[in-house]
Amino acid sequence: MVALEALRATLEEEPQSIRKKVELIHSFTLPHRSLMGLDAAILVETIEHIDPEKLYAVERVLFFDLAPPTVVVTTPNKEFNALLGVPRHRHRHPDHRFEWARPKFRSWATRLARPNNYEVEFEDVGGNHPLYGGATQMAKFQWVAGRRR
Questions:
Q1: pTM for this entry
Q2: Range of 86's domain?
């Protein structure tokens, strides 16, 4: 909430022409009317800040209720932490609720894709170490036309 309040304060300093284009929404655990009909949803370094027991609610809103044609999700690659000197028992940031290795992230994304009519592709971001992959991992979901929703 502190970050959201700081963002609100920063936004108040902007001209009205800018402020009227921005709507701050606190949660993705309930479908928000203003988000219906989106062309894409991009969650950049977001999911790791969500309590694992609340992640299911975000998944449902994103892939079932909103169901934009394109969804992109990035999250830190836990395996890469070894190159950053992050101890195995810690996360990169104190607010991270979890950090996943590539197999766990791919399993999660694949589990969401098929039943929600998406295909998913994976990509390393921030390099591609031969053993540890990239610093960040990305899943690109694309809705499959012709499959029933």
A1: 0.84
A2: 31-143
Q: How many structural domains does the chain have?
A: 1
Taking the chain, what is the end-to-end CA distance rounded to the nearest angstrom? 35
Task: Evaluate if residue 148 carries a pLDDT over 60.
Answer: no
Residue 89 lies in a domain: yes
Residue 7: inside a domain, yes or no? no
Average pLDDT, the chain: 90
Long-range contact set of residues 132-135: C-beta below 8 Å, sequence gap at least 24: 132/77, 132/79, 132/80, 132/82, 132/83, 133/77, 133/79, 133/80, 133/102, 134/77, 134/80, 135/76, 135/77, 135/80, 135/84
CATH of the domain at 130: 3.40.50.150
Do the Cβ atoms of 72 and 142 come closer than 8 Å? no
Which range has highest mean pLDDT (5-19, 38-52, 92-106, 135-149)?
92-106
Q: What is the dihedral of CA 18, 19, 25, 26, to 10 degrees?
A: 120
Report pLDDT for 120: 98
